[in-house]
Amino acid sequence: MSEKMKTRFLIIIGMIGFVGVAFAEHDPNQLLEHSIILPPDMKEKTFEEFMDWCEPYYGELCVKLEKNRIPTILSPLKQHEMGVRFQDIQCRDGLELVGKMPHAYPKCIKPESVEKLVMRGWATTDKTVELANPIAYSVTKNNTDFEVLYSLKGATLESIVHDADANSVHVSLSESVGGYLVISIPRDLIDAKIGNSEVDDVYFLLIDGLEHMYGEKKTDDSRIITVWFSKNTQDIEIIRTFWI
Questions:
Q1: How confident is the prediction for the chain on average, in pLDDT?
Q2: Among 153, 150, 222, which Cα is nearest to 183's?
Q3: N or C, where is the chain less crowded by C-beta within 10 Å?
């Protein structure tokens, strides 16, 4: 999405006491003091386009409006409905974007609430955690063993298995009270690319059959995935995706 479109979606002009704004037939010769009369098509303009139109007619009045405009971020759901990609959705300062379950609708919440809501199964997040003190686990694919590094909080690992039919990796858990998994997946085990290019694509991630968000860091040899899960989670599946 272009920056111009983002501006249009995310900025609402804050009207201040000494400047009045109205939509009507524009006639600069019939002005009320401290008022700006806008043509009807100005509703579809960005703030920058408005200023280009405004200054030749109203001069200093426009400058005052620009200095005192109040940027207002639309709700995350409204941005989503307007076609803004999830990763481009903006939150107000001090809030963090999560996906509200079960359909991962975008929602902005306080950072200290993220972990609590995720562990209750009410939200999903792409927040990353460092792979600290990792444990090595051997996963076999086509008679070749791959070393998968992981760290796990809030559950016990039962197994990590490659699924040749789905081209995915299953992580089986038990005794889950809610927490996170950080797993470093070798690119030679499963990777996701766009077509035949070297451009990384996203994984498709399921937790007990429901799609969830995930956080990611990348190296040349592996993709390090952070998955937050809720109480009683049993299966995390990381699926290779590709475009034909």
A1: 79
A2: 150
A3: C
Tokens standing for 197? 């290019």
pLDDT of amino acid 78:
86
DSSP string, 174-190: ES-EEEEEEEEEETTTS
Q: Is the torsion defined by CA of 89, 95, 96, 99 positive or negative?
A: negative
Please give the model's pTM, rounded to 2 decimal places.
0.65
> Do 221 and 179 form a contact (C-beta atoms < 8 A)?
no
- Both tokens of 27, joined, read 């006639």
What are the boundaries of each domain within the chain? Answer: 3-68, 76-124, 135-239
Tokens of 80: 């989503």
Q: Provide the edge-to-edge strand list for the sheet that holds 105-109.
A: 105-109, 96-100, 123-124
Could you identify the residue written with the tokens 């990763």? 87
Round to whole Å and give the CA distance between 74 and 242: 33
Cα distances from 39 to residues 28, 36, 47, 59, 63, in angstroms, run 11, 10, 14, 17, 19
Among 11-15, 60-64, 114-118, 208-212, top mean pLDDT goes to 208-212
pLDDT category, 58, cuts 50, 70, 90?
low
